[in-house]
TrEMBL record:
The family this protein is said to belong to: Belongs to the prokaryotic Ku family.
Identification of the protein by name: Non-homologous end joining protein Ku
Keyword Ligase annotated: no
Function (record text): With LigD forms a non-homologous end joining (NHEJ) DNA repair enzyme, which repairs dsDNA breaks with reduced fidelity. Binds linear dsDNA with 5'- and 3'- overhangs but not closed circular dsDNA nor ssDNA. Recruits and stimulates the ligase activity of LigD.
């Protein structure tokens, strides 16, 4: 169960059936938070609100809303003025129709929420609406008021929970007129076949394998700055390939994807072409092998530390090993044999040198 604070409490109006619910955010942001600072001394930048007439800072209690006319005149609008609006959806998610899910334009989709049953008596009507949505294979379109305005929403079943997707009103979606090329631009059958092959090759990547590589790279930079280590080096940009025509570009794309799929590893994370899963795997392996100390020990040869310590460790290891005598015996035997042969070779030389003297 999600232990998240509800942002809105109300009821779902399903005909004469009313379902008390709580609105909970279904998504969360993992973006790295930054603060504005003064470049010279690192001090935090604070944004304060000033009244342009009195030229002084004002508090939140002194701030209200107003509507600006075309000539710049501000018309104050108070909370009391808005409290008398005849909005039936002020605390109600009013279901107005049921439609097939594919009839909702994805351009209208906005923020997503989970609907939790408000109280114990709400469990049965909540389950009734959920099963009705499942059996109809449709989604519910509803109206509700949130954050000072009436909104459009779509209710659908996610697992055993009813989810609410905020929708834009139809007149809030712009028409894409004049953006696409003219209909007189045609493509060849060969290009379509290659595009189909490219679609099939790219279709093997799962959404669960995709990662925010930019966020991971930013986290690495922040971690390096905190620990005082060197900043990670940026990867070298890939060399661009000059493509002469569309068909060649498609053929090279399909060939590259097939080669990477057949010759690459079987890890699903690398099928998406991401570099961060490889970095994450290389960092996680030493920790699983033996914690922080083995990891630092493994890094010593790479950092170029003196080899004397390594030689001392090797001597200690050799002293403990029973194979020490075995290792020394072959080393001594050649030395002894060489020492014995040396006098034998020198003896004839001395005799030859002395014989001429005697004869003389």
């Amino acid at each position: 169960m999600l232990h998240v604070r509800s942002i809105w409490n109300g009821v779902i109006s399903f005909g004469l059936v009313r379902v008390p619910i709580k609105l909970v955010n279904a998504t969360e942001s993992h973006a790295v938070p930054f603060r504005e600072i003064h470049t010279e001394d690192g001090g935090r930048i604070r944004h304060r609100k000033f009244c342009e007439l009195e030229d002084r800072e004002v508090t939140a209690q002194e701030i209200s809303r107003g509507y600006e006319e075309s000539d710049g005149t501000i018309i104050p609008i108070t909370d009391e003025d808005l409290s008398h609006l005849p909005i039936p959806t002020a605390k109600t998610i009013e279901i107005v129709t049921f439609v097939p899910e594919d009839s909702i334009d994805p351009l209208q989709m906005g923020a997503a929420y989970y609907l939790a049953a408000g109280r114990a008596p709400a469990a049965r009507p909540y389950a009734l609406l959920r099963e009705a949505l499942r059996r109809s294979n449709k989604v519910a379109v509803a109206k509700f008021a949130l954050r000072g305005r009436e909104r459009l929403g779509m209710l659908r079943v996610v697992g055993d929970t009813i989810a609410l997707h905020g929708l834009l009103w139809p007149d809030e979606v712009r028409a894409p007129e004049g953006l696409a090329p003219g209909t007189d631009v045609g493509v060849h059958d060969r290009e379509l076949d290659l595009a189909d092959a490219l679609v099939d090759a790219l279709g093997e990547v799962g959404l669960e394998d995709l990662r925010d590589e930019y966020r991971e790279a930013v986290e690495e930079v922040v971690a390096a700055k905190i620990s005082g280590e060197a900043l990670p080096e940026a990867p070298e940009p890939e060399r661009g390939v000059r493509v002469l025509d569309l068909t060649t570009a498609l053929e090279m794309s399909v060939r590259a994807l097939r080669e990477s799929r057949d010759g690459g590893t079987d890890e699903p994370a690398e099928a998406g072409g991401g570099r961060s899963p490889q970095r994450r795997t290389s960092r996680a392996a030493p920790r699983e092998a033996g914690g922080g100390k083995p990891t630092s020990a493994a890094k010593r040869p790479q950092t170029g530390k003196p080899a004397a310590a390594a030689g001392q460790d090797a001597k200690r290891t050799a002293a403990r090993s029973p194979a020490k005598s075995t290792a020394k015996s072959p080393a001594k035997s050649p030395a002894k044999s060489a020492a014995k042969k040396t006098p034998v070779k020198k003896a004839p030389a001395k005799k030859r040198a002395s014989s001429p003297k005697r004869s003389a």
